[in-house]
Design goal:
This protein is an alpha/beta fold and 217 residues long. It is built from seven helices and ten strands.
């Protein structure tokens, strides 16, 4: 798989860009699917999926400003608290349920993963990797809460309350009988391009995309 550069989002306002890691997510979604994006923000990914893959998009977000931005893009998005789950959706009713940069800001991330696995035929989850070597080095050598391009906040104003690592996520899925269908570990560069990390991903990747689905026997 070739590295992706950060590129303008189709039919987006000039100041909006499709983050490079979203290109890898786009590749995982089949055309004309029903897609539910949890914590969809301003709808950058949903709009790209609609334009490039012809998906039927739907989103949930807690921010009214984000919802209005999505509506301005012609997207169907509604207000919802993801910590309360997805009770409005039937089992296996959505082709793809997506959560990008969402789990770490929730109070009940494990509950949402279970809800995603219930509702979605396939689920795509992306998270910053807290096992990344720069994170480890700041903790070990400086004794401070780490800051990176993926975790840019000070300890006192960070929205992230449940950090995870690639290994942690693998262990959670194994323990709970969830199949990992694809795992893409990424390294973000200064120009915001991303490349795939194939060796020692828990150490060398600062971001990871997982596609999960079904149950392990």
């Amino acid at each position: 798989m070739q590295p992706y550069e950060e590129t303008p989002k189709p039919e987006a306002a000039p100041e909006e860009h499709l983050p490079a890691e979203f290109r890898f997510i786009l590749d995982l979604v089949e055309p004309r699917s029903y897609v539910l994006d949890l914590g969809c923000g301003t709808g950058v990914l949903l709009k790209a999926l609609q334009v490039e893959k012809g998906v039927r998009p739907q989103g949930i977000d807690l921010s009214e400003d984000a919802i209005q931005a999505c509506i301005a893009k012609g997207l169907f998005v509604y207000h919802g608290d993801l910590d309360e789950g997805l009770a409005d959706f039937n089992d296996q009713s959505v082709d793809y349920v997506i959560a990008t940069n969402t789990l770490q800001v929730l109070h009940r991330p494990a509950f949402l993963i279970q809800e995603m696995a219930r509702v979605g035929k396939r689920c795509i989850i992306s998270v910053p990797n807290f096992g990344y070597w720069r994170v480890r080095s700041q903790l070990f050598f400086k004794g401070i809460m780490p800051k990176t391009s993926r975790l840019p906040y000070e300890w006192h104003d960070s929205p992230n309350i449940h950090h995870t690592t690639i290994k942690d996520f693998r262990h959670y899925c194994k323990k709970n009988g969830i199949k990992i269908l694809r795992e893409i570990a990424l390294k973000t560069h200064d120009d915001r391009a991303c490349t795939v990390v194939r060796c020692c991903p828990n150490l060398l990747a600062d971001y990871a995309v997982f596609m999960i689905g079904g149950r392990s026997k």
